Every structure is written in structure tokens, then in C-alpha cells.
Amino acid sequence: MSLAAAAEYLSHYGGPPLRIMEVCGTHTAAIFRSGIRSLLAPGIRLVSGPGCPVCVTPSSYIDRCVEYAATPGFRLMSFGDMMKTPGSGGRAIGGARGGGRVEMMYSPMEAVERAALDPSVTYVIAAVGFETTIPAYALAIEEAAARGLGNLRLLTALKSVTPALEWLLENERGIDGFICPGHVSVITGPEAYERLATGYGKPFAVAGFEGEHILAAIYAIARLAGGGAGGAGSGRVLNLYPSAVRAGGNARALALIAKYFEPGPAVWRGLGRIEGSGYYLRKEYARFDGGGRGLDGDEALAAGCACAGVTAGRTDPGDCPMFGSPCRPESPLGPCMASAEGACGVWFQNM
Amino acid sequence: MCVAMPGRVISVSGGRAKVDFSGNLVDVAVGAVSAAPGDYVLVHAGCAIEVLDGDSAREIISIFEELDGGMLE
Whose CA, among A24, A134, A155, A221, lies 20 to 30 Å from A3? Predict the structure, then answer.
């Protein structure tokens, strides 16, 4: 099997129509960059999923960020992706009206250093993310505790991907296979999808971020779900990113997550409340807790916004009546356009 | 948001490492991995999330070999 042979198979695919979800926003971006969509036969459709943490953060969380930024004595530290995401009334963390004391960070460790230098200000990290990012927040807390810092907080909107995939399998019909998020899988291990793969009889392929990785994953899913794999059961997990994803995941990172965080319910914008899909600071670390629990309120999306359907893989961004006009990356009306790795943002950049 | 980049570890000291990304030296938290100088680590948000085993090009070749060699049977 060569790359060319796999591409040939996918461009001439004549089996049953397939909808394959690329869960991760970074995969969506890589798929567009590599031109894979133009190579697939009409019977294979790629749909985006809930794998952009910014896109699934409810509006009440954004509002709390804006409140922190407007409160004297506090400074909000946020990843750039979060800055434009609209909260209630369209207010964003980095917006003129939200404004205030906000700084962009590349790593939570920057917030620790800032807090150490300036004890008169409480630094609040807008701690958004999936399993990939949670160990970085854990290490920031560990460092702050070791240095005795009392002016660092996490405002958490941390989520676990697998419960959202289970929600999709229960509530959305017609997703035939999943390209699993590669860097979430680095932490969780491929086993995280095992129960869903066997229970729902769907293929889950863990993929890296090169075009070839993704093509291999689509090929494997098409062979398994399209019935071209010699009658083998399609409900299984394939690890096609073994250079980074190990059996059992990253045990140290998982131990860090378990030490500092505990699971609880969380609201996903577009999907709703999903039990056990959130992570919250344990009470032993309450002194670092800037909130997160109970931030469940989610203002209805702008009239006509299709982000809920995009997040669930029901709607393509291009089918939203507001896509491109008036909803654009510089003036996003919905969260999937606000993030560079939201499905709408990726589509827009590649139109 | 889950973008991660590979870099080569130059030195490790007390949970921090100097990591080389195409000639740029960056301070990275390595508390979530067991990394030594010379290792390639995958770095996300200033934190190494795994030590890489092999390079991407060889991995891609072996993936296609395995897909052909019974992985889908």
C-alpha cells in the first residue's frame, strides 16, 4: 500500500455513502491546507465536530472573563483564540466593549511568571481546553504552589472529548467514523475510544496532523465502514499516530490531571449539558480556583447562526446563511467563526 | 487550539527544559514527560506533552505498510 494507492481508492470510492467526522479543529485546518477534500469521491463526506474548545465554551464563561478583565486588581490571561469569541450581547474578551485588563498568553506558565513579579495584581488564567491543554494548567498550579503564590487563579472551562463523542453517537445519526483528535489522544491514549468503537460499531482512527496521516485515517475508516475490509468488524480503534500516541496515553500527564482536577458536568455550546464532560479544580486547590463550576448559562446564538449544527456535524459552514456576510473572522457572530480553528473560521480562510 | 510542535531538548533543569525549534530556543515545562537532552518532544502551550518516538516521514511510510499488511483485516 502506498499513499498514491490510498488516494486512488478514496477518489474512486463507490461504496455506501460515508460521513466521517474530523473531531479536531486542528485537523479541519490541516485537511484544507493539504487539499484532501478535493481528492475524495462524492460518496465520502467530511464533517467537522465539537473539537474546537473555544467554539464550545458557553457565553456565561466569556461573560465571567469580561467581568474579571473589568475588575480593578485583576488581570485576565487568555490564549489568542479566545479573544474574539462572542459572549452574551456579542461582547468578547478582547473587544472594545469587553476590553479592560487582558493579556494574550502562549503558555499558562507566563501567567505564573507575571504573578510572581507583581503580587499586587491577581492573575486569572482563562483556562479553556481539552485533555491536551489540561496538563499545562496543572503544571502552572504546581509551580504556583511551589513558589507560594497567592495571586494566581484558574477560571476553568475544561472539557473531555470522549463524552461529547458519545453524545453525538446517541443524538446524531449518520456519522460513520471518527478521525480522533491526535493531541488529545497523546494524553488519553487510543483506549479512550475503545468503548464507543465497540459499543456503536464505528471505526475510530487516531491521526497525526500531516496530510498523509489524515489521508491514511480516512482510507482506514472508508475501508472499515464502507465494508471493504473483508467483512472485518468496523467497530475498532486504530492508532495511526504511534510516534506520539502510546498505549495508555501519557501516564504522567494523566496523573497530573487527576491530582488537580475532577470530572463534572459541563455545557457545550451547540450541544448542551453533558454529564462527566468537564474538569474542575479539586477542593484541595480551591485557593487557585477562579470559578468555572456552574457557568452553565448559554445565551442563544445569533438569529440564523448555524454554529450548533456545525458543531454537531449536521451543517457545513458554507450552508449557514450568514457565512461570509455578515459573519466574518474580524466580526464573528458565532463562536465557530471566532476561532482560527473553528470550522467556520477554517472554511472562511480557505474560500 | 490543540496545535503542538516538535522540538529538540537541549538541556533539562528542575522541570524546565531549553527546547530548540528550528534554531529558536524556548523555555518549556517538562513535568508531564521524562525527557533528556537530544530527545524530540511535542510541545503544546509551553508544555511538553510527549517524547516523540521516530520521525513523521518514517511513521507515515510504516502506517501505509501496516494498512496493507493486515491492520484492517
Answer: A24
Domains of chain B: 5-71 (2.30.30.140)
What pLDDT is attached to residue B73? Answer: 79
Of A1, A106, A242, the CB nearest to B68: A1
Nearest-CB residue to A26 (from B2, B60, B71): B2
Domain residue limits at A235? 1-302
> Mean of the pLDDT values across residues A86-93?
86
Query: Are B49 and A187 within 8 A, CB to CB?
Result: yes
Collect all residues with Cβ–Cβ distance below 8 Å to A18 and sequence separation of at least 6. A43, A44, A45, A176, A177, A221, A222, A225, A226
Question: B57 CA to chain A: closest CA distance, Å?
Answer: 9
pLDDT score for B2? 86
B33: nearest CB among A106, A230, A252: A252
Q: What is the pLDDT of residue A233?
A: 74
What domain count does chain A have? 2
A334 and A196 together in one domain: no
Q: Across residues A88-108, what is the average pLDDT? A: 80
Coil, strand, or helix at residue A205?
strand
Q: What is the CATH number of the domain that holds A228?
A: 3.40.50.11740
Mean pLDDT of A300-309: 91
Are A183 and A41 found together in one domain? yes
CB contact under 8 A, A53 and B1: yes
